[in-house]
Amino acid sequence: MSDLTYPEIGATAGVLPPGYHHVRAERVIGRGRVAFEQAADALLRGAVQRRAGATVRMSETPLRIGTRIDMRLGPFRIPCLVVWAERDDEHAGFAYGSLPGHPESGEERFELTLAPTGELTFTITAFSRPGRWFTRLAWPVNRLSSAA
User: Does residue 9 form part of some domain?
Assistant: First the structure.
C-alpha cells in the first residue's frame, strides 16, 4: 500500500485528518435482510461508482483489501486501491485510497449497516485534497460551490 498518495490510511474509519475536505453522508435506503444482501452484493461489485457515471475496472470481485480499481469519468483517470473491505451479517463495505494519477489525494469509504430494526443505512465518509495540477487550480471554486 506504499503507492497511496496520502499517509492517513484507514482514517475514514474514525477521526478524519485535518488539512482535507471532509464528507460524511448517510441515508436510509431500504429495509430487511433481502435488501441488505442485494445492496451488499452490488456495493462490493462497484455498483455505486458505475451509477455515478464512472467506467470501472477491478482487479477482482467482490472487492477486498488490495483490489485495484481503475475508473474513468469523462477524460479523468481515477486509480484507487482498496484499503479496507468487510462483509458480515449486519455490515458490508469498503474503502479505497487514491493512487498516483488520481485527480485528488485521500480516501473514500462506502458502508452498509443493517440495524436490528431492519433499517438499511448507506454511509459515505471521505477526506480529500487536490492531487493534480488541474484540481489544485479548481480547488477554491470547487469548495465554494460545494458550500452553497
Answer: no
Q: What is the CATH number of the domain that holds 90?
A: 3.30.530.20
C-alpha–C-alpha distance, residues 21 and 129, integer Å: 6
Its pTM stands at 0.86
Domain limits for position 137? 22-147
Question: d(Cα 36, Cα 30) in Å, to the nearest integer?
Answer: 8
End-to-end CA distance of the chain: 36
Q: What is the pLDDT along the chain (148 residues), one digit of tens a residue?
A: 669 999 999 999 999 999 999 999 999 999 999 999 999 999 999 999 999 999 999 999 999 999 999 999 888 899 999 999 999 999 999 999 999 988 889 999 999 999 999 999 999 999 998 755 445 445 444 444 444 3
Q: DSSP character for 29?
A: E
Contacts of 15 (CB under 8 A, 6+ apart): none
- Nearest CA to 111 out of 129, 124, 101 is that of 124
Q: How many domains does the chain have?
A: 1
